[in-house]
Write the structure tokens for this entry.
Amino acid sequence: MSLIELEPAPVRLTERTVVDWRELLLTRLYEQAERALIYEAYYDGHHDQVFSTSKWREAFGNLFAQFADNWCQLIVDAAVERLKVVGFTIDGNPSDEAWSLWQENALDVESVVAHTEAGKCGRSFLLIDPNDGDPLITVEHPSQMVVALNPANRRERLAALKQWIGDDGYRYLNLYLPDVVVKWESKVTVAEETGTAPVEWLLRDDGGTNPLGVVPVVPLENKPGLLGVAHSDLQPAIPIQNAVNKLCSDMIVASEYAAFPQRVLTGVEIPRDPETGQVNVEVKAALSRVWMFKAPDAKVWNLPAADLSNYVNAVEMLIQHLAAQTRTPPHYLLAKLVNTSGEALAVAEAGLVSKCRTKTLFFSDAWEEAIALALTAAGADVAQADCETLWADPERVSEAQRVDAAVKKKTLGIPLPVIWAELGYTPDEVAEMEREQASKEQAALEAATAAEAAAERVTEQVTPPGTAPPQTPPQNPLPPPSTAT
């Protein structure tokens, strides 16, 4: 009999109670948190010595337990630092209401946290709290939040659960369903829990309604798959990171025991203490010392220091593999950039730019739905399809190149607001510049009108009453018609 057959049959979807949802999602949360915390450890530089042998561990124990040549953090941060939301449009127009919500919830900073956690762990979550018409948007960690999707429709969220430990030591748990939010707390503190007994939950809110009508938790997923699996940027990097750590540890050991030259004496009898048997003559090498031996067969051999470049070359090869598999520019990792042209840099960073643009596609829908739900909670009638996220250009281009391209586009008749947006200005800045331009154009029109009116008044003053104003002859009069037949 297989293990699957021994498991209890899951409760049918239509028959699940809030307790059934709580137990199901808690199990999924623990599995998700276990994976997320592994990625957290690698990002923070807490790596296991995976490739060390039993003899190596026997010789060095935990000597290298705290060592890590950490590249994981750079791999995640290289993409995150190029992901910046600059605004939202609703029905094609910049939305001040959406941007105000963004600023009120400090999402300039929190969005960086959300993108970092998604790149690091594969996903993070956006929790929308209606808060009586003053909506809150918070970023949640995958070790504390989990969402259940409908297997028949991945875009439909069935339920979500958040569990955390308060500063009082108790566990707290919120279950989010489309129509209700249920809250529990543990009966005892974490310190009082036993390893075998399940957590006993006490109801602290048995049915607060959910005014949004949908599960108010939006997954922000990095490279999502059709089977519901999101992928961490560290997935391909961790095996290579483990190999780099092993080679660096071996190089440290080699530098300790074999990185300096040794001299070997043969054919020489070393005097020893007759009582203790210990060597009582120390052979020292120095500029002011000369070695002389009476034995005719005495020889001195020189053993060169170990060549550590073998380790360096192997580490550099692995880092090149790391750059290729994670699409991180090689000069980010190897730091060998000398007199490189702008075109060469653009080619080297093309993979990272493409990676960032793909991330904006994955992340845009999550931000759009979160903003639309928050605006709905604030009383507006906004659907996700009406909302669009605006991102800064992830490609690094010099200011001179941008301005030169902008001037050429202007000569082609491209509207200035479009050019300003491509130059990286936010929708608020573009709107302000449009207002300033309209004001200048209005002032110029008024000045031209006033000048024309003043010219007419001068003409009226110069022309005597009852006299027609002088007519200006045409500059190029037509020739008289020909009478020749």
